[in-house]
Specification:
single chain; 290 residues; alpha/beta; 434 Repressor (Amino-terminal Domain); Endonuclease, Chain A; 2 domains; six-stranded mixed β-sheet; 6 strands
C-alpha cells in the first residue's frame, strides 16, 4: 500500500488537476487504478489530496490522461515533490496542530509572503516577549513550559527570512496594531524597535495604514497570501479563525485576496514613511531618560 498523507494545498491542487485531466481524457477511475496497480479508492484519495502520489505513479497517470505538454508535466511534478524533505520543525510534529503544519510548509516553500494584520503583528516579525504576551492572551490555560515552547518556536520560524534565497516578505498593518500596547509599553517599544530592524533586511518591507487614511475601510480582515515560483504558479491564502485556519486555493477566491492586497498597498504609507511612524510611536512609548 502507498503511504497515506495529510492533505496540503499543493496536494489538493495536484489531485484536482489529475482528476480534471482524467475526466477530459475519458479515463475511468478503474482504468486509472489499474494503470498504477491500485484500486478505485486509491485514485479517489489521490484526487482529493489524501494520498501522496509517487513520481512513477504520476508519470503513468500523466501518460494515461494524455498530459503531454512539457510545462504542464513539470508543474505537476513540482507539486508532487512537496513534503519529501525533512523540515526543521518536524521533530516537534507531535505537538503541532495540522493547520499549523500546513502553514509552516507554505512558509518554507513560498517565493513571496504578503501578510495583512488588523489585530497583532505577524509571527514572522514578533519578538519573544511580544509573542509570549500574544500567546498567553489567546490561551490562558497554557502551562509555562508550553508557553515558553510556542514563543521560542515562533521566533525560530523567522529564520526563513534569513536563509539563502529567502522569500520576499511584505507586512501591512494598521496603525492600531502598532498602538495596541501588547505586554505593556516596554514590551511594545522593544517590538516596534525590532520591526524597524527587520525592515532593514533587503527582502522585508513593512508598511502601515495610518489612522488618517480616508480610503481604508478595513473590511478585508487579516490574511496571508503565499506565492510560489514557476513552474508552480500556485497562490494560497490563509485566513485564521478562532479554532484554526482556512486555506483558500481556488483561483476566484485567491483573485479576490490579490485584489484586496492591491487596495491595501494603495492605502498604506510608503515603506520609509511607515518606518518613520513606527519609530515615532516607539519613542513615545518609552520617554527618553535624562
Amino acid at each position: 500500500m502507498g503511504q497515506p498523507a495529510r492533505r496540503t494545498a499543493r496536494r489538493r491542487r495536484l489531485g484536482a488537476e489529475i482528476k480534471e485531466a482524467r475526466v477530459a481524457a475519458g479515463v475511468t477511475p478503474e482504468q486509472a487504478a489499474r494503470a498504477i496497480h491500485g484500486d478505485k479508492s486509491k485514485i479517489s484519495r489521490i484526487e482529493t489530496g489524501r494520498h501522496r502520489v509517487s513520481r512513477l505513479e504520476l508519470e503513468t497517470l500523466m501518460d494515461l490522461c494524455r498530459i503531454h505538454d512539457p510545462q504542464k508535466r513539470e508543474w505537476l511534478v513540482a507539486l508532487s515533490t512537496e513534503g519529501h524533505r525533512r523540515s526543521w520543525w518536524r521533530r516537534h510534529g507531535d505537538v503541532l496542530q495540522p493547520d499549523f503544519k500546513e502553514l509552516l510548509t507554505l512558509e518554507e516553500d513560498a517565493e513571496r509572503i504578503s501578510a495583512f494584520q488588523t489585530q497583532v503583528l505577524p509571527g514572522l516579525v514578533q519578538t519573544k516577549n511580544y509573542a509570549t504576551s500574544v500567546i498567553r492572551s489567546s490561551d490562558p490555560t497554557l502551562s509555562d513550559d508550553h508557553l515558553e515552547f510556542f514563543a521560542d518556536f515562533r521566533v525560530q520560524r523567522q529564520a526563513v527570512l534569513d536563509r539563502e534565497n529567502p522569500p520576499s516578505y511584505l507586512c501591512i498593518v494598521t496603525e492600531g496594531v502598532l498602538r495596541q500596547q501588547v505586554g505593556g509599553p516596554e514590551v511594545m517599544a522593544e517590538q516596534l524597535g525590532y520591526l524597524v530592524k527587520s525592515s532593514q533586511r533587503p527582502n522585508v518591507t513593512i508598511r502601515v495604514i495610518p489612522f488618517e487614511q480616508p480610503g481604508y475601510t478595513g473590511t478585508s480582515g487579516s490574511f496571508v497570501l503565499y506565492s510560489y515560483p514557476d513552474p508552480l504558479d500556485l497562490d494560497v491564502v490563509q485566513v485564521e479563525y478562532l479554532d484554526g485556519a482556512l486555506y483558500l486555493e481556488e483561483d476566484e477566491s485567491v483573485k479576490k485576496y490579490r485584489h484586496s492586497l492591491d487596495l491595501l498597498r494603495e492605502s498604506a504609507l510608503p515603506a520609509p514613511e511607515s518606518i518613520d511612524l513606527i519609530s515615532k510611536i516607539a519613542r513615545d512609548l518609552v520617554p527618553q531618560r535624562k
